[in-house]
Amino acid sequence: MTNATAKDDVFLRDLWYFGIVGSEIKPGQMIQKERLGELVLFGRTHDGQAFAMTDICPHRAILLSGGEMVKTETGTQVQCPYHGWRFRPDGQCANIPSLTADQTEGMDISKIKARTYPVHESYGVIWIWFGYDAEAAPCLDPPTLDIPGDSKIRMHDECDFNCDMDAAVISLMDPAHIPYIHNQSWWRTPKTMHEKAKTFGPIERGFSMLPHKPSSNSFIYKLFGTDITTEITLELPGLRPEYMKAGDKHVTTVTIVTPVNAAKTIISVILYWNHPAVSFVPKWLIRRGMHIFMEQDSAAVDSQAIGMSYDPPQMFIHDSDIPAKWYLALRRNWEKHRKEGTDFVNPVKKPTTLRWRS
Question: What is the mean pLDDT of residues 296-303?
């Protein structure tokens, strides 16, 4: 195995992660993002093909993102800003301009390669694979979303959380914090709290809050009519789609938790819809609502991070904290499965009904 399996590695591997929204890069463009503590250069060839490689030049470690994308007869190449070295999208070194003719003949530049990452583009997202073995091909299919018809992204927003990935995931899936952290008259308040019972079931690498009628104390849901059902799933490493469906109409909110590094996480919220009720709402208003929610959660985990820095014990109670316990068990079991070769064990064995007040 590679150095990705070092004891201080805190990230789950052999999984597809959110890279960027595809519209962020046009043909012939590139952009740097930090993912799992690594500087990644996302690019799109002049023919429109997405790729990803390390943003660190293997020659003298300057950032390749400071260079340019060059269109050549053999295809797109990334040119280093320091000495003009060029790399193909597969990482292969294509040219070292400082070499003289005889030096070129005596040096096999095909042995020089920048690290690359497998990518897959679907649902308007460029997904990136992080494996325990950096040279091995992906062993899983890319993520799939249950989006009927057109899967064009209608809206996208992001927010940084100053915490590790686990704290971010647990915060976003915690049902009991909603009337307090997200205390708004147009959403939910402590005065509207009542008892709820939701049934959860297992999925391949996670669990689902099975399709159900949305909460009656959520004003926004009422805009979509009375025949709507909601399903919320959580799949490793941090994919949380919420499907609201009414016949052939839908509103799908995909929240994705991605570790930037060990102390910082990015929350990406992507909306897809074909429901006419949403189409009549001004996009700026929807975006503002999304951002309010993310800022509230961000402030909560920032405060929690201060408390966690003192290494206190934590309590997990029934039933509202059970999804958090499931997530932590999923994480442990996946790591053991991939590192030790044991069967992956989903802690959610069968449909289970949880009850709480929210």
Answer: 92
Contacts of 61 (CB under 8 A, 6+ apart): none
Q: For 31-72, how does the pLDDT look when each residue is reduced to its tens digit (9 = 90+)? A: 999 999 999 999 999 999 999 999 999 999 999 999 999 999
CATH superfamily of 3-130: Rieske [2Fe-2S] iron-sulphur domain (2.102.10.10)
d(CA 170, CA 198): 18
Q: Please, what's the largest Cα pairwise distance for the chain? A: 80
155-357 sits in which CATH class? alpha beta
Distances from the Cα of 271 to the Cα of 181, 283, 290, angstroms:
22, 11, 10
**CB atoms inside a 10 Å sphere around CB 270:** 23
Distance CA 131, CA 2 (A): 9
User: How is the chain split into domains, by residue range?
Assistant: 3-130, 155-357
